[in-house]
Each structure stands twice: as structure tokens, then as C-alpha cells.
Amino acid sequence: MKIAVAGIGYVGSSLATLLSQEHEVVAYDITKEKVESINKRISPIKDKEITEFFKTKKLNLRATTDYIDAFTDADYIIICTPTNYDDKNNYFDTSSIEDIISKVISLDINTTIVIKSTIPVGYVKAIKRKYKIKDIFFAPEFLREGKALYDNLYPSRIIVGSKSKKAKIFGEMLKNKALKKDVPIKYMNPTEAEAVKLFANTYLALRVSFFNELDTYAEIKKLNTKDIIDGVSLDPRIGDFYNNPSFGYGGYCLPKDTKQLLANYKDVPQNMIEAIVRSNDTRKKHIASMILKKKPKVVGVYRLTMKSESDNFRASAIISVIDILKNHNVDIMIYEPTIKVNTFEGFEVVHDLELFKNLSDVIIVNRKDKNLADVKDIIYTRDIFNRD
Q1: Do 52 and 146 have their domain in common?
Q2: CA 25 to CA 23: how far, in whole Å?
Q3: Any idea which residues carry the catalytic annotation?
């Protein structure tokens, strides 16, 4: 089959790589650099498995900035464009998805649209009414930054928001390319699939928030966070995973998905969903207050990324911490190798690591790094387990 993938982020790049082992895949994006990367077989994102596949696999994959070329004759068009929650207007911005849908409709082609971008509950039903289209469904992704292709190869589950014949073909396509055996696959109505995505990510945000608040308590009371978490996590119902404290949850999914789910609760009683959203803000304020107690003149920020295996700092918690610190007359400088210019949002970017270390009174880092081993006395982090 011919499959078009709209959007070359970590979802689109990993899906395009996965499916191009067996099908003709044309990736479409408005960013020339991403398109050129795909065509040169350079991963447009930091992902070990994609890089490896580009070097070792024979892939029927190309990329283009021409949507007509990409979409014409495509059996499936998979939308992986970015969506985000608009805090000011209190709604989920899905304009990038509707831009693709409008382009597809303008071509008057016989195809099936699969939405992989995160969307509000009830979105597919509304889109079907608005655009009078039938062959469209939602299939949520559950991918980690830096591990996107790996998570497609070893998926925890496959959820498809339709029970149609074309939906089942799509589900089997993903399952057939997985290396993991006996992958559970579940077909359901689109609205339930949309809810699965938001509730799953909100639970993960809840877990992050829980262990962060445990750490806040231990830090203020001068207790050993690791001992407490180790003891709590020995309960098999809780488990020793996804429990490493941080400056807060961030990234592509958790901040926007929790806020979107809360918005969906507009007419439904709740306490916990709102608390999960508020807890993240409280955590970041606590982190900033602990840094300020050290009375630093210069705070060095080592990496804006949330995780050691990622090059993304979208909605990074450390950026929110910086925003709080700047209101307390603290000089801030940033060391972030992915930023090539000398300033970021008004803050100095230092490209020389040794100079960065020498100029900093306190260095804050969400996840520890061996490059900071020689200055551990001035490091502030809540990374207890050196992972995640």
C-alpha cells in the first residue's frame, strides 16, 4: 500500500520508519530541514532505533513538502501533526489536524484518514459532522521521547478507535511490524479511544506528581527520599518504576493532555484531575524556592531537556523554574548544546561547558549527567535514581 504520514515529529518519524519496511511511505511536512533529513536518511529527531534503521534497513521511504504528491493515491493518510492546549482560550488547538483534513478533502481522493495526534474527547465525531467524511478514525500513540520507534517495535498495546474493516487492517499493519509477540490490540469507538489516551497520560502525570510530592515532603523534613520510595515501591501493587522525582512533568504530552482532560470534566464532578494539574505548578514553585535558599548570584541551567535520551524541551519543567527565578534578581545562564544561538528567551546561552561550570554558583539539572561529576558540590537536582 501507499501510506502518507503528515508531520515528521517523533510520532510521524517513527511510524514512517516502521511502516516503510513493507509499504511505500511518503512523509509530508512543511519544514524543509525535516524533509531533507528523511531523504538523506538522517533522523530528524534524537532516536537511537530510527538512526539504526536508517543505516541498516531497506526502507521504501521518502519525504516531501508537497502534500499533493504525498496524499495522492494514498490508501491511508496518518496525521501526526502537533496539537497543543491553549491556556488563554481554554481549548485544545487542533488547527494543524484540520489543515491536513482540508487538504485531503480538496484533492477529492478515496483514502482513509488516521489521526495519531492527541485530540479532545468527542473530536472525531465532531469532525465527521463538520466535514461530512466517513473514513476517519483515531488511533492513539503511546510513545516515549527518544524511544519512539522502540515503542512501536515493542508496544504495550495497540488501540484503534474504530471497528471498521479498514481500521482492523491498520491495526494489523502495526501489529505485524512489531517485534514483540502477542501484542494486545483493542478496537473501540472513537470517543472511547480518545478518552483512553487522555486518561492514560493523566494517570502517568498523577504518578509523577505523587512521587514529586513525596520528595517535596522528604526534602523539607530532611528525610531520605530514596529510602522512602524504595520502601513504598516494594509493594507489587505500586511497583519500582516511573518513580524518580523530577522538577515536574513536561514534554509533548503530559501538560497538555492533563489540561485537556480537565476541560472535558467541565460538567462532571471531580477533584483529582484538577489537583494533578495544580500539583505540577506547586512542585515547580517548591523547586525554585529551594534554589533561592542557597542565595546564588548566578544559576547555571544544565540542559533544558526533560530526559537524558531526548533533544526536546517543549513545556520543560525547568523552563518554568527559570521563569520563577528570574523574578528574584538571579542571573541565569544556560548550557544547552542543541541551541546554537547566544540567547534563549532573553537568557545567556554559554556554549563552553568548562566556562559554564566556572561561572555558576549553583547548577540546576533535572537529570544527572557524568559531565557534571567534577562540580557535584554545586549541583541541585532531585534525580534520585539516575534514570527516567
Answers
A1: yes
A2: 6
A3: 253
